[in-house]
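Dig into what follows:

_____
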Amino acid sequence: MMKDSLSYALRNVPRYTSYPTAPHFHSGVDAETYSDWLGSLTPEDSLSLYLHVPYCREICHYCGCHTKASRRDAPLKAYAATLAQEISLVARHIEKAGPVRHIHWGGGTPSLLPRQDLIDLAGLMRVLFDFAPDLEHAIELDPRLVTSELADTLVKIGVNRASLGVQDFDPAVQKAIGRVQPFEVVAQCVDQLRTAGLDALSFDLMYGLPGQTAETILDTVEKTVALAPGRIALFGYAHVPWMRKHQRLIDENALPQASERLKLSHVARAALAEAGYVAIGLDHFALPTDSMSIALANGSLKRNFQGYTTDQGEQLIGFGVSSIGRLSRGYIQNHPDVGHWQRSIQANLLPVAKGVALSADDLARARIIEELMTNYTCDVTPVCRSFGLADEDLADAFSALEELAADGLVRVERSDNDNARIRITDAGRPYVRLAAAAFDAYLADSLASGKARHSAAV
């Protein structure tokens, strides 16, 4: 009989937007390493480009992103100039590569970059890289700062998807998290984007925020559905004031208790499903006609640092402060402070702070984790063989799954030829991060040493 679901929901595990996870990156991977990895790309390696802009007009209390507040445009213009230098610098290290299939501007609020800088940066990427005809070009937006001029500019530079930070529509919750944006503001933003021709919209919502109740989150879902975004991300708020000091502005006594937080998740998920959205992975939903629902159905759904994605680029190249790239041979992360990042680029050096080279064991576990997180199933034996491993090399993972299997959250199946398949059951889907964590060879040591702290599983 399954133990109390709350005991599973409270376990602290990574979100697995990468494996190994970022706390295991180290300085042994440097600019020289990254240069070698870039130089080894081939025309068969399609690309995904990520641009990080670490500025907002103000910092919301709940924010977990690497960003800072700036009321002036001067730092933004200087940042854009260095970003252009970095794009050119990286391009010079690539001898051959396939087309760019995905571009994502994240932050922060990347649309704060001056209009001409947005145009110039997009034009520079088009000159230095080959763009695929079906390129998805996405940007994260603050609905409070969207104007008709910005919407037209985004369409002009080729942006064809926008993600809006909504979080919650309840006025009291908005005040508690330091982000007041009435429903009318978001509705106007949506209208401006659609009028400009930018129809592919995603909304970010959150549960577990201070003052949220089942009634308020249902009202947020209802208002969201009325605006009909193609995709919705429903994230659990991660309260990590030891990492993000501004989160101390949130009254911890107003945060939902663990059982209430779990209820908020269930209520919101059920309401979105009833509204016709397809549940995708841990925390995404999409209309049946959206490309993300189609990717889920045909098995091409992916997961990276932006969460669930239809991005089919084999190699992810990150630009900007703290951005992370993922090439076949490993991960790299840029310097986290603007000054160090700028000085490196001005010295004609790739601004790498750390990273990790991937072993065959890492690659196999990463593949299994991604398949579990996206498709809720994985044929483990063929994955192991493709990286020169056997099931026995992952004996620790199979042992870790036994508890979940006993409670009906996963099934470990063996075929006649002894191939192993893992399936996440319907009951286990909310806890899929726990099944993924079974394959994390680094997790036990990092938790024991205090090297990494993670959010609750649900």
Q: What stands out?
A: The two ends are 21 Å apart (CA to CA). The first helix runs from residue 5 to 9.
